[in-house]
Design goal:
By secondary structure, the protein is α+β, with helices and mostly antiparallel strands. It has helices spanning about 5-10, 30-35, 45-50, 55-60, and strands spanning about 15-20, 20-25, 45. Strand 1 (about 15-20) and strand 2 form a beta hairpin. The longest helix is centred in the N-terminal third of the chain and has 9 residues, at about 5-10.
Length: about 60
Amino acid sequence: MTREEIQELIDSDFHVLKEGIAIKVDGEIVDYIEKLDEKGSPIYVLKDLLKWSDDELQRLQTPSI
């Protein structure tokens, strides 16, 4: 996944990435993540991904919308 792809998702009002799927969150992102309470599947906040290194980003799959 590239920074450009992440920025496009953010610009399209997506907020998190869960199991390779971009999701729009109504309300607070932290509240949304806490409600999921899932241990096995990681959830990524798109704005946080912009801080990752290019190597880390390459390990993420390109999301489905």
